[in-house]
Every structure is written in structure tokens, then in C-alpha cells.
Amino acid sequence: MSAGYTDWKWGGLAQGASAGEVTWSFASLGGRLLEFHRAIDSAPHQQAIRAAFALWESVANIDFDEVGDSQSVDVRIGWERIDGVGKTAGQASWTGWAPELSYAEISFDLEETWDVFNGTAGVNFYAVAVHEIGHVIGLDHVDETLSIMNPYITSQTGLSASDVARIVALYGPSVPGIETADGSNVALSHIGSHGTWSLSGVGDFNADGHVDLLWRDPATAQVDQWQLRDGFWSLSIDLGASKPAGWTIAGVGDLNGDGVDDVLWRNAATAQIDQWQMQNGHWSRSIDHGATKGADWTEAAIGDFNGDGTDDVLWRKTDTAQVDQWQMKNGYWSRSIDHGANKGLDWTLAGVGDFNGDGVDDVLWRNAETAQVDQWQMQNGYWSRSIDHGANKGVDWSVAGIGDFNGDGTDDVLWSNETSGQLDRWTMQNGYWSASVEDGIQSASIELAGIGDIDDDGTDDAFWYGVSDAQLYSAALSGDDVLMS
Known about the structure:
Blueprint: E1 20-26, H1 43-59, E2 62-66, E3 75-80, E4 90-97, E5 100-109, E6 114-115, E7 123-124, H2 125-136, H3 161-171, E8 178-180, E9 185-186, E10 189-193, E11 198-203, E12 212-216, E13 223-229, E14 232-240, E15 247-253, E16 262-267, E17 273-279, E18 282-290, E19 297-303, E20 312-317, E21 323-329, E22 332-340, E23 347-353, E24 362-367, E25 373-379, E26 382-390, E27 397-403, E28 412-417, E29 422-429, E30 432-441, E31 446-452, E32 461-466, E33 471-476, E34 482-484
Parallel strand pairs: 1-2, 1-3, 3-5, 6-7
Antiparallel strand pairs: 4-5, 8-9, 8-34, 10-33, 11-12, 12-13, 13-14, 15-16, 16-17, 17-18, 19-20, 20-21, 21-22, 23-24, 24-25, 25-26, 27-28, 28-29, 29-30, 31-32, 32-33
Helix pairs in contact: 1-2
């Protein structure tokens, strides 16, 4: 094999052959190759290791199985006093009948200062776990900045494209997550895991044309940003915890017209509104919009409703159904437009998108009682006409996401059936849906987390969150019938 491999693998000698089942455990007994001084028994560290195994399993044909500890387990993991703070964070050792692996051990320095997932208060434990597991499945160090197999710890915590290519060359691709109607298989693309953190926003926060992700820790209110490149997570930026738990992210959009998405915050208790203006992936200043919208108003949507290149904010009054719009200019709302209350409380704002390709975002409404769908076509900040889309989607259907899924410059509508998990997509043209495409069935093991162009091909993709493994995946909605599993 070429550079980047240890020339060892699981599951036989053939390159590209599945590893089969590889068992692993948290060592409670002594090591055979390394010295285990203590068991890894804290829940956050255990979760990070499980997530690291799941990351490799999601891209390569390896079936990792956590089992109770014994000397016969394939891969055993524990704490070891290696060499103190700031030196060797982790190490791996293995044996077998070259080049076939039969046993491996991984240890983490017990005396190191660790930060389980984020890497701001210490060494990123999750990143080191991904790195060391890479060794025991056959990958060696590489001198690539974005690779998780770089010997020096950087901000990289996910897999680079070359990491994926190398491990797939050893074991073949992972067991597919999508089955198309003709029986062929397409794998979900793995992005990474942020443990128990919530995906809170999707946007381009550094104007590089690539979608980025905002995460928030519900326990600490810490905000973290993942910058994505070519479908992979390339950089993590810590945005701090300056917004305590009472604040929530109300929406994301370019609120000053500089080509960079900004973040709108709302305090649930005080109704205070604040905005982070983003620049180069960081928030450069905070703009206080006061509490001009009381607690009886909710932020309904963000979009460019007058075609001036700056996103605006739609508000809705919870008791009267009144709709109001902030037209934004240079990061501030320059005027307020009253859209009245002609959509009663039985109507909900289902989503915003450019449904006729005129460069202005339109508003999609849904009646919860009748399942009626209606659209406001927007012009110069006002709705110029209403388009009735009927009630062919029953009350068990809901709008799951809006995006341009076929690259024609017009946004489409993704529907989800709450009973069956069925996914269906309206392809929009000139403000009307021209075709309905069945996108298969979403299983209970994944949840739709967001919409964005993950692979930079000019079409929007869906982000899926693994309920059990806390992993984030993406899938292209290309027009084929698919089965999510």
C-alpha cells in the first residue's frame, strides 16, 4: 500500500474487502500490549468513543460491536499514564498475522487536560479517539492539514476526503443508508458528531460560498460553528456562551446585505432581540434591536421579500394572527410593513422560498384544520397575489424543508408524513408545483435536521441526524425514489 497505511487490516488480506464484525470494549482488565491504569467510566468520554467508532463505521464497511470486556475482545480501550500533560495524548498498539489484524489496544493519557468534544478547555478527546481508531483499522500518519490522521492535534475533528478515500480503499464503502427504487444503493454521506449539542442554524458565515453549521450546547449555552468543505467538516470555531440559556437562535439570514449570513437571537423571557453580525466565521458585533416585539409576537421567518439582496424578518402575533415585516438595511430594520391578519390562527407559516425564480422570497402557508396550502407571492416587500395549492396533502403531512433540490434556481418543497415517514417533494415552477416526486420513507432512526448545499454542486441537500448514534449525515435529493434506512 502507499503512504498513509500501516499495512494491517481486519477481515482478510484483500483490499476493499469488508472487515466484518470487529468487537470493542472499555477495558476493565489489564492490557496485553499497553498498560491500562484505569477504566474509562465517565459517560461523556464513553459517548465520545462510541461516536468515534460510529464515524468510521459510517464511511467504511466495518461492523463495530461494543461488548463486555475480556481478553478476547478485538479492540480494548482505557486510560494510561503515558507521559504527562502536553505530550502524547493517546496511543495505539496492535498485533496479528501480518497483514491481518487480530487484536488492538488504545490508551489515552490519564494526566492530560481533556475537553470531550469541543477542544477549547483542553485536548479534544473525541478527535484523538477518531485518530487512534484510525490507526487500529489500518491508517498511518499523513502530513495533511485537514486529515484526522495528521500526527499533530489541530482543529480538525471530522474526516477529510482523503481519510474517507483511504479507509474505503481498505474495506469498501459503508453499508448503504439509502436504497433507490430500482434496488441500487447509495450511502448517506457522513459529516460528524457533536454529541448532545443541537443543530441550531445553517448558513454561510464567512462568505466562501460553502454552507456552515451552528451548534448549541443545551447544558452550557456554548455556541460552536462547523465550517464545511466539499461535504466534509473542515474547521470548528468556538463562538462562546455570551448568550445564556434564556436566549434562542430565532433565525439565520444576511441582514445587512454583505453576502454573509448573520444570526438573530431572541430572549424568551424579556422578548429582547439581538443580532450577531458575522464576518470571517466570527461574530464581529452585536446589534440590539430592543424588545419592540413583545412576548406575544414570534419570529416567523427570514427571507428577502423585496429583492434588494438583504434578508428581512417576518413576525406573527400569537393572539391575533397579525403579520408584520421588518425590512432590513445595513443590519437594522428600516421600516415595518403591516401584512394584516387575513391568515387566521388556524393557519401557520410553513416556510419561505423563491417559488417562481424571480429573486424574491415568497411565503408558504398551511391550514392545520383543513390541510389547505396557500402561497403569498411577494413583490417589493408586499404580497402581490395569493396562490391556492389545494389540500392534496392531508393533515398528517407537514412541510419538512424548503430548498432548490434540482438546481433550476427555484425553491422546492419537501413534505414529510408524520404517520408513515413517507417523504414527498413538490418541484416548483412559476409559483406552482409542476411535479410531485416520492423521496421514499424516513425511518425512525434518523431525523431531518436542516437543508443546505453540502457538496457545493448548486443543489440543496438534506441534513439527517442519527437518533441513536448522534451523528450528522447528508443526502442529496436528486429526483430518484429513495428509501431512508
